[in-house]
């Protein structure tokens, strides 16, 4: 006599595998999304650094001596 799926334990293995696949799908999706975002940031940061808005008075002059002294 051939044992049933439940008797052989095969049903439990199949259900466990199915649950594993269901939980892995969102995890893989999130990981791919994270990797894609990291790659995009790496590739685009030079452009963003060059085109970032600057302050109106963004000069390279030091601020030393700009505060008036009181006698």
Which sheet architecture does the biggest sheet show? none
Computed Rg: 31 Å
Q: So how many helices?
A: 2
Task: Give me the secondary-structure category.
Answer: mainly alpha
Instruction: Output mean pLDDT.
Output: 83
Give the termini separation.
108 Å
What global shape is seen? rod-shaped
Share of helical residues = 55-70%
Q: What low-confidence regions span 5 or more consecutive residues with pLDDT below 50?
A: none
How many strand segments? 0
The fraction of residues in strands falls at under 5%
Multimeric state of these chains? single chain
The H/E string reads HH
Give a verbal description of the structure.
The structure is a single chain. By secondary structure, the chain is an all-alpha fold. Helix content is 63%, strand content 0%. It has two helices and no strands. The longest helix has 41 residues, at 10-50. The termini are far apart.
